[in-house]
Structures are given as C-alpha cells and as structure tokens.
Amino acid sequence: MTTCHLERKRFYCREWAFVKLSHCLEQRGSCKTTGAVIVGGPGSGKTALCCEIVWPGSGQSARPQRCLNKRLLAYHFCQAQDVKTLSVTDFIVSIAEQLSQKLAPISEEFCERLKSDAEVVSSLQRENIIKCPDDSFRKGIIVPLAEIKPPPSQCYFVLVDSIDESHISGVKFEKKSNSGSSRTIGELLANNHHLLPSWLLLVLTARRQSKTIAKTFSGFRKISLDDLRKSQVVRDVQQYILSRLEWEESLRQHMCRGTAETLNQLHIKSNGCFLYLERVLDGVAEGCIVLREVRDIPGTLNGLYLWLCQRLLSNKHFSKVRPLLNIVLASERPLSEEQVCRCLLVAQPTLGSEEMRRRCQVLRRVLCLARDDTLRPFHHSFAEWLCDVKHCTQRFLCSPASGHAMLAMQLTLRGPNLNAEEVESLALHLSCLPSH
C-alpha cells in the first residue's frame, strides 16, 4: 500500500469533481464504460484530489469525499521519485492485499480464495508475477472478483493516481519483462480493464498532455480539473485564493490597497494550476515574495520556477547544491539528508561538516522534507524542469547522469557487502551512465 506526502494536507474546493465521480460510480452497472480518468496539467491538483478521497477530511464540506471513501476498495499512488511505486509486481501484490481486507465484509469466499485457492495463491507469488504480470493479474485478481456470488449490491472502485508517471531517467528504470507482457502499471490496466466485473469502476489520473493515456483509455469518462471553459473550474481558482486568505493570518497581514486587483492577476496567470497559486501564496506568507510582484512573475509553471530560483539561489549557491540535486534526481527512492550527504562525500571527500550543513540549508529552499525525513522535489514537474535546459537554462540545469555516477561509486566501494537489492541498484545506476 503506497503513501503520499500530501496525506492529510488541508484540501480546498473541487466539490463538483467528487459529485461527478459519484455519478460515474452510480452509472457503472448500467453502461459499458469501465472507468473514469481525471486529467489536468502538472500541478492541477490530481494527486491532492486522490488523497482527499483516500483520507477524507471532517466537517460538512467533506461529506461527498467521505461517501466516496466508503466505496473505495483499493488505491495506489505512482510516484516518480520512488520506483517501487512504479513496479507492476508491487502494484499487483498491494491491490490483492487491499481487496482482501476491504471485501472481507462483502465476500468471505473471495478472501478465502486469495488465501487458499492453489491457482490464485500461485498467481500472486512474486516470482510468477515477474514472469507474467498479465496472467497473474487476471488469475489472481480479476477472475476471483468476477466470480463473487452474488455480486455486490452497489458499485465500488479502485483508484490509481498518476498512471503516466515515470522516473526522471526514463525507460531504463522499467523492469524488463517477457515480450507482450505489461511493463508498466498503465500497460497492465490498459490490457485488462475490459475484464473487470460490472460492479467495479477503475478511476485513474493522468496529465492532460499524455496522448498515450488519452488513446489507451479513450472509452473512459473524462473529468478535467483545469478546463477554464468550465465555470466550476474558474470558481475553484477563486475559492482557493479566498480560502487561503480566510485560513491564514500570515497571508492576510500582507493585504493592502490594490490587493483585489493583484489577486485577480494571480488568478488569471495561474491558468487553473493550483500548484502555481500555492507556490506564490506560500512565498507571500513566508515573506519572500511581495504581493505587488505578482505582476512581474511569468504566467507559466516553468516561468515561475525560473523566477523563484533566480530569486532564491545565486550562481554560487546553486553550484554548491547542484551535486546534491543530481543525487536526489538520480536515486530510485527518496533519500534522507544524511544519505545524500554520505553519497556526495564519496565524490568530494574533503568537504567539512560545516560546509555540508550550509549546503543542506540552501538545498531546503528548493526541496521539501517529507514526513519520513526524506528529501524530495516538492513536485515532479520541478524535477523535470531541473533537467530541461529549454526551461531551466544552463544556470540551473542538473545532471541525473552525474547523480547515477555518484550513487554507483558509493555502492561499488561497498562491493563485497552489497545485498541482492543493492546489487540490482548498482546495475541500474551503471546502466544510466553515458555510454561514451
């Protein structure tokens, strides 16, 4: 079962989206559509919406998402910075475990089959999933679901967030599989969703720009979170700004004459992107952005990242934290500050502890510290930006390849003591190094 760093974070708006999902759920039994896909650009709030369904808030306003939560059988968050969450094998194992727990009050027979049916148990063993994930998914999950008798009296759903997410280093991080077998969670669901029973809805989220997902799941109901032609989306943007002002004294104290016009500019520039609004309003609350500067901020997420980095990091600062960022970007899982520093010391052994402490302080300006004390980009789009010279410019360009080299070097020095997982990790980082 995956977790998400947005869990329990204050949630704003989107009531209409929960109503639409509920409508899809009610219609599932009477139509051929097997799923719904929630789309939006980077930072439009897809993952936040999923978190609110999985961990709904309290109070009257959260009633729609609590109702949806009661019909949720299983969920999965695909996260680019943690390749385990992108693993087809781990996905199948996790979904099977969750279904076994959630369906216990509905079908004891289903739960018993997952524990004692020889074919089902064999299908869900890791070594067999690795050999043929599609076969395991069908025999271990879909067939037992389809054979529940009598079928549940109401429809339920499975939620998979960021189905199009992939590690910054791309396809080299995908597990190799037999020809014709699904390599990604997206492929697995695309190849098998038509076999789901009529009482089960598949709900996915993906970027609006993802043509592969749009084509693969073309029959799914589409819910767009940032289509500004829709009045409810425009209302969400306005309400987000007003709600932040209502809840946060640190924001209200920056209000003055002309604030309304400035906030209207912010509304327009955000283009429906909640992450854009969040980064600007957080900057105002923390005192690093003056509200009147909104007129100078570019009107795209990529432009905002460049503006913020130019403001927060001098050339000298960035040159010192770039190696640390390279390690964070290249790692197949989130690392703690201490782990990142240990890795850097392999390449730069003369760095003193005080200098390392200063570098980490600067690093925290552009990375977030998660609940488990690991360092992560605050959003995957920022990690992508750091690797795209067209948007970040040479000044802020990072090199995951350099990070792979440092991670591989650190593992190589421990060669005789590596366990099987670390050996696989070493091979992976070596495969990502430039071939010349």
TrEMBL record:
The keyword Phosphoprotein appears for this protein: yes
Full protein name: Uncharacterized protein
Domain TANC1/2-like winged helix: 311-430
Keywords: ANK repeat, Phosphoprotein, Repeat
Domain named TANC1/2-like AAA+ ATPase lid: residues: 226-310
Start and end residues of each Nephrocystin 3-like N-terminal domain: 36-167
InterPro entries given in the database record: AAA_lid_TANC1/2 (IPR058018), NPHP3-like_N (IPR056884), WH_TANC1/2 (IPR058056)
Database matches in Pfam families: AAA_lid_TANC1, NPHP3_N, WHD_TANC1
Keyword Nuclease: no
